[in-house]
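Subgroup meeting minutes
Present: P.N., E.W., G.H.
Scribe: E.W.

1. P.N. recapped why we're keeping a running log of single-chain structure predictions: easier to compare across weeks, and new members can see raw inputs and outputs side by side.
2. G.H. added today's entry (420 aa).
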Amino acid sequence: MTGPYAGLRVVELGEGVALAYCGQQLADRGAEVFKLEPPGGDGLRHVRAHGAGASKLFQWLGRGKRSVEVDVGTIAGAEILHTLLAGADVLIANLPLARRGALGLGDSEISAGYPKLVAVFESAFGVAGRMAGRPGNELVVQAMSGMLAAEGKRLADGAPEAIQSCSITQIPAGVVLTMGVSAGLYHRERSGEGQVVHSNDLGVALMLQGGRVGLNAPDVETRAATMERVTKQRATGAGHPAMADAFVPPKHPVASAGTAYYRAFVTQNGAVFLGALSRPLRDKVRAALGIEFRLRDEPDFDPEDPEFQAKARAFEAGVIADMRTRTTEEWLDVLEAHGVPCGEVTFPEDLSGNEQALANDYLIDVQHREDGPQLQVAPPVRFGRVTEHRRDPAPALGADTEAVLDELGVALAQEPNGTP
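Output recorded in log:
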């Protein structure tokens, strides 16, 4: 198979969803990816795994890679690692700084020893500051980035509830790592020199909230007032629920009703989402639903007028009731005919048979050696001159160890012989 990365040799060293997703993206596009796994295998193999087989998550993230089971902490294992790097184009890794140093993979050592290598390193919190080198994961990054509190959902005891519907920080972090690889390779193509690239998960989480995390002059006064309320609650020891209420006061009744143009509604047989943020789109919703009340689009809009507030509450209740009178399919026909951005509310498992996903090849068939046929999520990016994605299944643990060592001309040590 061909692809944008065909002919490139990539070493994947470390564990975690972001790193594995980056490696998968490179493998899908033609790169030869050597996944170095510790004795016993990558931890993702065992996440909600059924029986002795690899987990569904690993089978997806490991697609198209070659598995080399090796303990790089031994002298023999380190020799295998560095022999691989000598012939590699790219290293993707997420090792603590101390671990990198012990393996001879510091920035300066990479630049001196492998001048044409593009080395892309992931960390949870970056390489500077007191938290540099600390471990992190999806939920820790959600908490520290503000995502978890901003979501506004709480457990029964008032603690903030994690976002669990998807890997909201780790998959984007993998995408950013892949961007780092591509940029590093472009730099090498132009200059002839390799590159050391760093990315961190906290930075990616901030990127996803850029408009909210950032601060500009008009925002200073508003934010200061908000944080003053939070600081007062923090000082009293009131705890998270009170702090969160201070941060996000109860919604104004008019503001709440205004979301009738941008929210999900229950229908006769399911739910449908309307996505009308601009006035032209809200006009289309009004035409589709046959409603007149314009809320914030009214020329005499006054959110503090009690009469206006009552009208807003009645309006929202009326839309909610009206949406329950037809099926999702009927509403989609009406809304689409008026040009309203909308969609059925579905479950992730529904997508395996979704006509749109299948028509665009977002899902591909993979034949797994032990588990048989599988349907897996494909890369969303398409290249006009490359019509196929790699469909090789994830490897069994150590399936390629012997073959890779033969290719490298390295003998497989039977026993560890010390640490580097």
